[in-house]
Amino acid sequence: MTQTAVIRVKGYQMEKILYFDYCTIPVLIIVLFATLMRKMTKGLANRLFITIIILSCINTVFDLGMEFMNGDDENVILSVCSYGYYTLRNGTVVLYALFLFAITRTWYRLKSAALKVAIAAPYAVILLLLFTNPLTNKIFVISEENVCERGEWLIIFYAITALYAVGELLYLVYCKRFLGIDKWVALMSLLVLSFIAVMVQLFYPQILLEMFANSIALLLVALLVLRPEEMLSSTVGLLSWKAYKMELKKIIATKQPVQIAVVRFVNAYEILTYLGEDRYYSYMHSVAEQVNQLYKKVYFELYFEHPDNMYIVFDSTDYQVEEETQKLYDLIMDKMKEIDSSGILPEPRICIIRYPEDLERYEDIVVLGHKFHGLIPYEQTFCRASDIIGTKDFEIGSNMDSILNRAITRQSFEMYYQPIYSIKEKKFVSAEALIRLNDLEHGFISPAVFIPAAESKGLILPIGDFVLESVYRFISELDFERLGLKYIEVNLSVAQCLQKDLPQKIEQLEKKYQVSPDRINFEITETTYENIGDVIHENLQAITARGYSFSLDDYGTGYSNIQRVSRLPLKIIKIDKTMVDDMDTPDGMTIMRNTVRMMKEIKKELVVEGVEQAEPLEQLAAMNCDYIQGFYFSRPLPQKEFVKFIMEHNGVM
Ligand code: C2E
Ligand code: MG
Ligand code: MG
User: Fold this and answer.
1) Which of 71, 274, 341, 482 has the fewest CB atoms inside 10 Å of its own CB, making it the most exposed?
2) CB neighbour list of residue 221: distance below 8 Å, 6 or more residues apart
């Protein structure tokens, strides 16, 4: 056996450079090892990738075998290596094409018979030519000196490889828009590096570079494309929300029909608090395992969005997901009973979205996944997207971005004022300023809908500025003394309280409109003081120091903490409507009575919101409440009507 491989070029014998092939094997083994260590063995793309690495490794061995066996007595080994090399070299090119379909989530395209033929036929030609080679000797021939010599038809192999490469290149160009540049470059690198290597080998046949170039490209793919750490949610070990969004973008870019079962755990926060993080995440994990069992016959992927949403994306639209929904619901409930026997139960809501029939836009699918549970009756546990789409709430939710931007640029907001009645003084002494939005397309939109949306989209500050400016202007136009009014209540959102220059803004408005600070009372919520940091703390102090007062809004809705309430510089506590509604039960009545008593004892003034009937009004008056705000007296009114209302009811001539 020869120790060094030689090549005959233009009559000269040249020593072949095999170092690159030697290096290929450790590189591929490292890639394989890393892939297995990162547990990337599930799913079609991962499996194809592992197969490509293993076959490339074997192929490099064949490549080296061919070089070493050239001229050796072992004719059989040379034949095996030659046939093995040509079979695998082209086979991996086909597998890479399949890998591209799997990684870009366009596997469903292979359902098309034409595409199947287009991919398989050239390789079938290669196999046929190899199969008949012992008779034809046109691809390669093993000479009498036991040297593998190229046949005249070998060029066909190169032409077919080039054909696959061009096809893959075009497909990658098509997929560029949803792949992300790093992934795209890594996937492209296999084609580019292979091309460079083939060119180098064409001009310098003694350098065996092709397999090495291939291995470097596979390393890049492993590093940049298959990144489990980017895809997995660190807490639960399931595919993450980010992975879901990326998948959704791919689905939409490639128009792959899918079904998505969104599972929303509406009481996730309560369960998380009750079970603690570790038990909650292990519950979610075991639910995911059961889901794997339930749908083991179909191809799907499960994603988890912390802490309350699961998305099950089914590749098939033929599969009747609805039929298994009850089983899905039951397993979610049963798993909780196994984990915790105290009786706490999840409240899952399931929505099936069919793409593209139900929704075609990425934003709409995301919004529906977050909102659907609020758009169906509370007791309903299952719905189809088609039942919800088209309702006004959904239209507003999915167009919120454009609605808010339109409203901000056109200033289509308006301030309304809801009168607040003083039980002791038997007249209206203040009012709450409440913003209204009348959209050109969707009509009236409740602030309970658009304020949280504006907060989450970072658009609340311009809205807050509008509110402040309007209220100061309104106050400057009113004759408070004559109307019998003392102050106007203005809602401040957390984001506003976080603005470093909030006290300066207020000072400027105060000077511009000549408004005395005791004419305004700012409302904050528990979320504001839960987020209390240095900025909010300093802002509240600075504003209080200027002479403004604060009230705590919506008391009784969150985890109201009386100790915290007593420590904050709050003048007024506003009791939420939900507590008023509960007054028709003995427990609700006891809670209200004791809350009022406690607040009075720590010297807070009390406004009770949401009073609609005379009966609770009388009961609250008997409890010694200070102020009442509710539809019983008046709904929020536009400025003019509000002034008219106050004049009439406060007896102003
Ligand atoms: P909020 O600050 O708790 O305001 C009280 C809400 O209760 C108002 O709803 C008011 O119309 C409603 N309400 C008052 N009495 C009754 C009643 O007897 N029955 C019923 N069913 N409802 C009653 P609105 O105007 O829809 O505002 C909802 C929420 O939107 C407000 O709750 C507040 O959190 C937010 N919001 C409204 N205007 C502004 C604003 O200018 N700035 C900020 N940051 N938030 C605002
Ligand atoms: Mg309020
Ligand atoms: Mg309130």
Assistant:
1) 341
2) 49, 186, 187, 189, 190
Question: What token pair was written down for 21?
Answer: 């092939």
Task: Give burial (CB, 10 Å; 0-12/13-18/19+) of 447.
Answer: middle
Tokens encoding 233: 């949610």
Q: How confident is the model at residue 8 (pLDDT cuts 50, 70, 90)?
A: very low
Instruction: Quote the ligand 1 centre to 644 CA distance (angstroms).
Output: 21
Tokens representing 381 are 């546990």
- Residue closest by Cα to atom 16 of ligand 1: 610
Q: Cα 156 vs. chain centroid, distance in angstroms?
A: 48
Mutating to test ligand 1, I would choose from 414, 420, 421, 434 the residue with most ligand atoms within 8 A of its C-beta, which is: 434
Tokens found for residue 306: 């912390």
Please give the model's pTM, rounded to 2 decimal places. 0.62
What six digits make up the tokens of 65? 């075998």
Q: Quick one: which H or E segment has residue 261?
A: strand 258-265
Phi, psi of 343 (to 5 degrees): 110, -5
Strands 300-305 and 413-422: unpaired
User: How high is the pLDDT of residue 646?
Assistant: 96
Instruction: Please provide the DSSP assignment of 171-227 as one string.
Output: HHHHHHHHH-HHHHHHHHHHHHHHHHHHHHHHH-TTB--HHHHHHHHHHHHHHHT--
* The token pair that represents 588 in the structure block: 């609700």
Q: What is the pLDDT of residues 502-515, one digit of tens each?
A: 999 999 999 999 99
